[in-house]
Amino acid sequence: MKQILVPPGKKIYFASDNHLGAPTRDQSAERERIFVSWLKHVKKDAAAIFLLGDLFDFWFEYKTVVPKGFVRTLGTLAEITDSGIPVYFFNGNHDLWMNGYFQEELGIPVFHQPEQFEINSKRLFIGHGDGLGPQDKGYKRMKKVFTNPLAKWFFRWLHPDWGVRLAQYFSVKNKLISGEEDREFLGEENEWLVQYAKRKLSQDHYDYFVFGHRHLPLEIPLQEDSVYINLGDWISHYTYGVLDGADFRLEHYNP
User: Fold this and answer.
1) CB contact at 8 A, 40 and 78
2) To 5 degrees, how large is the angle CA 249–CA 251–CA 255?
3) Mean pLDDT of the chain
4) Which residues have a Cβ under 8 Å from the Cβ of 122 and sit 6 or more positions away?
């Protein structure tokens, strides 16, 4: 279990589901400006920043090529890590295909599976959330195809102009990829990430389960001393998580 000590006056920040690049260049650019403004704002007192996936609506790393754009976001993240503030990235279902660029260029570790962290004695189970729980079966089947080494090998042989354009089209249009199922709260018994967290609690204790993917800001008590958190998104809600070393809360960013 990875451990982080939050110094007095510092905080840990969490954000997820920016989907930069969608649905249009202009709309994405406006949301990116807001997110970069938030990054610069939280840098003032951040002990660490967690990004829980789907930062991009599509991302694929060829051996010598990455998707065009997002310069302001990437530059700000480099500035933050260069200043000594650690950033942790959990890839989501839209940015599955990361293969070293964030680590080498930005100094940001990338996690492909949920991880456990202990922050000032609080135990956190952190991940994007895609493919977890008893449902999401259609996406689970699709993810096996996306992560298949042979499928990735064939995709790399497409010219980036064709490959990126094709992937962006399906990323926006295909509901299984985009995750645009009903974004209303389904009730605790039908929220599959809540059910997943409850099963994990039967095996070990966690103070907080922190996920993205669902695009809904949610805080659901699981037990007296355990809470499920969904961070929301940077499309409709502009919400993020804050852990001050003792308590976790969701906040809304309004620049």
Assistant:
1) no
2) 155
3) 87
4) 207, 208, 243, 245, 246, 248
Q: Give residue 135's pLDDT.
A: 64
Measured between alpha carbons, how far is 192 from 181 in angstroms, rounded to an integer?
Answer: 13
Task: Report the candidate in 158, 177, 159 with the shortest Cα–Cα distance to residue 168.
Answer: 177
Domain around 59 = 2-252
Q: How far is CA 103 from the centre of its chain?
A: 16
pLDDT digits (tens, 9 = 90+) for 8-19: 999 999 999 999
CA distances from 39 to 146, 171, 193, 208, 254 (A): 30, 26, 27, 23, 13
pLDDT for res 177? 41
Q: Please give the structure tokens belonging to residue 184.
A: 């209303």
| pLDDT confidence of residue 232 | 95
At residue 66, the pLDDT reads 87
- Look at the chain and report how many structural domains it folds into: 1
Cis ω on the peptide bond leading into residue 23 (within 30° of 0)?
yes
Domain CATH number, residue 7:
3.60.21.10
Angle at 120 between CA 255 and CA 216, to 5 degrees: 40
Q: Which of 70, 114, 117, 67 is nearest to 92 (CA)?
A: 114
Rounded-to-integer distance, Cα 65 and Cα 60, Å: 9
Please state the pTM of the whole predicted model. Answer: 0.89
pLDDT of 181 over the 60 cut: no
- CA diameter of the chain: 53
Which residues contact residue 24 at a Cβ distance below 8 angstroms, ignoring those fewer than 6 apart?
A: none
Q: Residue 50 pLDDT > 50, yes or no?
A: yes
The answer to whether 235 and 19 have CB atoms below 8 angstroms apart is yes
